[in-house]
């Protein structure tokens, strides 16, 4: 029945399991373990446990299971496994699939910690990684080989907001039998159905739009039942990256409103981008939803025309101008999360991407003047006024 529901209904009711008390709001099962009626029942459950039978919270928990089912319904995935953070999810998704001697092709525009896993950790275990410009399908085609096991990319890159063609890359990867793993955080599960577009495995940091109010760390990996239960779950449950039931409960509540929130944030982001585009203090206003964005065709096809909830502003005056601009903002906070109800401004070159070399930053278009702006739920007019005032203050 739930499969016939439309998105908003799935987000409110999907995955609900009620206890004997028939509570309205999902219960928080704040327990590490579960009591067995008998020794024989314990034995049977360790051999095989049914969907409502739990053993230990690292393996599964009713509140976590509700979250997994609800997000799987939203994504249109067969199954999901929740993780302690977005990075536990990315690491689990990749490491559970790979062994020494395998080859990975990855887009080079990545979240700093994703880059660390691909560049530093996997290499230590004998996995070779080739980096490509994710927006150039010719580079993907030239990089894949018969021993390519996984291709990995962020479907919308941080912080330069390049959009990668999921369907195009998936066709190239599948031709050599590789598994397509997509970090879909910036696209959000509301705007992009990566699995329908060819991804085999989709990863979210729930810390971002799924929580949406900046409270808790979490993540989730989605894919086929075979992959989630056969490959990922054994890796996650034995290595310990499982999600807290309390955080799962927050994310269940977050999913109830995610469609309303990210649509409001994306609508606001477009108005802000349009209001600031061409401002004399800006070298560039980057927002995938702008009709002038180089990949707007792909945005129409892959994201239903929505440009996401983040925009990036490249200030002409470099670091000094970026810092003066950040310090002059009165409504947005200076921080480094995104997808929050509060607007958040970040200077990637000195924070999230500080670890990169000057050359790497240059190659990725992360200039010293670049400011990433995660649009919150404040009044759009107030935000535009505040951003314009701050731009005027830097001259
Ligand atoms: C935040 C983020 C992550 C990591 O998520 P955490 O919850 O902070 O561990 C991974 N990928 C992208 C694109 C992100 O924005």
TrEMBL record:
* Positions of modified residues (N6-(pyridoxal phosphate)lysine): 208
Question: What span is annotated as the signal peptide, if there is one?
Answer: none
**Which pathway is this protein assigned to?**
Amino-acid biosynthesis; L-methionine biosynthesis via de novo pathway; L-homocysteine from O-succinyl-L-homoserine: step 1/1
Function noted in UniProt: Catalyzes the formation of L-homocysteine from O-succinyl-L-homoserine (OSHS) and hydrogen sulfide.
HAMAP family given in the database record: MetZ
What PANTHER family does the record point to?
CYSTATHIONINE GAMMA-LYASE, TRANS-SULFURATION ENZYME FAMILY MEMBER
**What is the name of the protein in this document?**
O-succinylhomoserine sulfhydrylase
The gene from which this protein is expressed is: metZ
């Amino acid at each position: 029945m739930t499969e016939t529901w439309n998105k908003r209904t799935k987000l409110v009711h999907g995955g609900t399991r009620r206890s004997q008390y028939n509570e309205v709001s999902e219960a928080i099962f704040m327990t590490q373990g579960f009591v067995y009626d008998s020794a024989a029942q314990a034995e049977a459950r360790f051999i095989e446990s049914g969907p409502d039978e739990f053993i230990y919270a690292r393996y599964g928990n009713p509140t976590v299971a509700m979250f997994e089912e609800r997000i799987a319904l939203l994504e249109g995935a067969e199954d999901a496994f929740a993780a302690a953070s977005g990075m536990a999810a990315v690491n689990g998704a990749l490491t559970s699939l790979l062994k020494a001697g395998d080859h990975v092709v990855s887009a080079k525009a990545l979240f700093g910690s994703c880059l660390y896993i691909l560049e530093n950790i996997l290499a230590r275990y004998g996995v070779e990684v080739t980096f490509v410009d994710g927006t150039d399908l010719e580079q993907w085609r030239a990089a894949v080989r018969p021993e390519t096991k996984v291709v990995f990319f962020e479907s919308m890159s941080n912080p330069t907001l390049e959009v990668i063609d999921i369907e195009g890359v998936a066709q190239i990867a599948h031709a050599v039998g590789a598994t397509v793993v997509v970090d879909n955080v910036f696209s959000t599960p509301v705007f992009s159905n990566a699995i329908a577009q060819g991804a085999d495995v989709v990863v979210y940091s729930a810390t971002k739009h799924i929580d949406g109010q900046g409270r808790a760390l979490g993540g989730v990996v989605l894919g086929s039942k075979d992959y989630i239960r056969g490959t990922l779950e054994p890796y996650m449950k034995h290595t310990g990256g499982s999600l807290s039931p309390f955080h799962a409960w927050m994310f269940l509540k977050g999913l109830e409103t995610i469609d309303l929130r990210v649509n409001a944030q994306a609508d606001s982001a477009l108005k802000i981008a349009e209001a600031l585009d061409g401002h004399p203090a800006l070298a560039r206003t980057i927002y995938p939803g702008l009709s002038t964005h180089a990949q707007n065709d792909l945005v129409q096809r892959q994201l239903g025309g929505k440009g996401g909830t983040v925009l990036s502003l490249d200030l002409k005056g470099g670091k000094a101008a970026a810092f003066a601009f950040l310090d002059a903002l009165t409504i947005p906070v200076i921080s480094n999360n995104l997808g929050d109800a509060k607007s958040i401004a970040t200077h990637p070159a000195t924070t999230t991407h500080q670890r990169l070399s000057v050359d790497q930053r240059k190659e990725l278009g992360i200039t010293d003047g670049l400011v990433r702006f995660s649009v919150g739920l404040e009044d759009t007019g107030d935000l535009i006024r505040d951003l314009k005032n701050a731009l005027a203050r830097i001259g």
